[in-house]
Amino acid sequence: MRQLWIYGQSYAGSDRARPVIDPATEQAIGEVGWGTMEDAEQAVAAAKAAFPGWRKLPAPDRTAMLHEVARKLRANLEQIATELTLETGRAIAKNCGYVEWSAQAFDYYAQISRNTRGRVIPSPEAGQLSMVLKVPLGVVAAIVPWNYPLLLLAWKAAPALAAGNTLVIKPAGFTPWTTLGLSRIFDHLPPGVVNIVSGSGSRVGDYLVTHPDVRMIAFTGSTEVGQQIMRKAADDIKHVHLELGGKDPLIVLADADLEAAARAAVWGGFLNAGQVCTSVERVYVEQSIYEPFSERVVDITQKLLVGPGIDPENEVTPMIRPSERAAVDQQVQAAVAAGAELLSGGFIPDRPAKGYYYAPTVLVGVAEHMAVMQEETFGPVLPIAPVQDFDEALARANASRYGLGATLFTNDPKKVLQYMEEIEAGNVWINDPLIDNVAGPFGGMKRSGLGRELGEEGLEDFYETKHVHWEVEGRMKSWWYPWTE
Ligand code: NAP
Ligand code: MG
Known about the structure:
Blueprint: E1 4-6, E2 9-11, E3 15-21, E4 28-34, H1 37-56, H2 59-75, H3 77-88, H4 92-112, E5 118-121, E6 128-136, E7 139-143, H5 151-162, E8 166-170, H6 177-181, H7 183-186, E9 194-196, H8 201-210, E10 214-220, H9 223-233, E11 239-243, E12 248-252, H10 258-270, E13 280-286, H11 287-302, H12 322-337, E14 341-344, E15 361-364, H13 371-374, E16 381-387, H14 390-398, E17 402-403, E18 405-409, H15 413-422, E19 427-430, E20 445-446, E21 449-450, H16 455-460, E22 463-471
Parallel strand pairs: 7-8, 7-10, 8-9, 10-11, 12-13, 12-18, 13-16, 15-16, 18-19
Antiparallel strand pairs: 1-2, 3-4, 5-6, 6-22, 11-21, 14-15, 17-20
């Protein structure tokens, strides 16, 4: 059984243990201890106790410890990737990549946190020093979703720790297995710097969100839960970092490389069974190439291999749970009932016999008001719609409550320039979708989120900012004091 980890010690958790289900086999891969509010309280107390020591640790020592986290992740890469595949269903090869990228996040933030802790600014008078000083916030709660349990944790933990904060991590209920196993990756850090508490979102998660000693909530998950967290954080004016849902458009113009764009749509739509926050969720294609494009997408889709992620041959892996699959199927069936046409998929496949699969689905004849064009579809579904021209595509792409990512396929630099300025999305891709860069800030606009992970911005958000004014010569210059006249 994998246990909770608080102040460097393993605990069974105050609730009864739970099985962790493999979505490819529907079997338990093991059991985990389950925490309650009492365990969350212990974890916050541990992180609070560890904070003064961690923030004062000389930077070279802290940096070395974070590089060591990266080294241990790489040393355990295959085991961690396998564990991630078993609990998320996702492809093993991809998971190997995600372990490496998670390690890179620790190396990157270890490195850049050495560059600066603020700046010196010109003072209003001679003999003074004015500085902008960056200090850690204190205890940070990292609340993580089930689709990328390690990577999205690394994007929070690495900058939070590099900035000198301490952490309480709450993994998603479906995927606590790999995260609880990370105690061995963090066990060279001083006790309490990292604490890991499994448990339900509405109990343990909510307890962390409302705890007065938690100064920041770094959250990735649904827009609905993000909204609740932001409301609750208002009571204590806590810092929040919200990486939420998306409805990412892919625009394909007539001058684009049609083959590359069709592959991008299939890959961006069906990667991790469409359970990616930046999945391609709407495709807008210029009328003149709409038919050949849709045909090519269907052609590629029908050749995709559907099966368990543990087999590297498989391209479309299972969804996380039947309940999530049912919600996706409901959107597809509602679209069909309202006049959309299925060119591929739209059903639960007979094979594999076990596992929560959904056939990769291509829809045409979709109307903009349909849920499948408006709401996040967290599954392998690609609705394709024709547009008259680039202006219509851009207007429809922006007519969304979400603003996470967007992709444009074209070879026209004027349109690229207009698109990069005007598209309402935090992640803007041209001729190559869904590419992250550890040095490039990641995040959303509108209901897709607040704040950025990765890049320098992803470190900045884990500091509190102070303006320090120092009268070095010891002569106060404020005019109403008689002794300065
Ligand atoms: P979710 O239901 O919002 O849950 C996310 C995390 O929040 C889980 O750990 C969950 O715990 C916890 N939680 C639930 N209710 C809570 C509450 N009242 N207070 C505090 N914490 C609470 O999201 P999900 O279904 O796991 O993940 C899918 C969503 O994440 C999608 O909408 C996707 O777009 C989004 N996502 C966004 C990004 C991004 O970077 N923008 C990246 C990946 C995913 P339990 O699991 O125990 O409920
Ligand atoms: Mg989707």
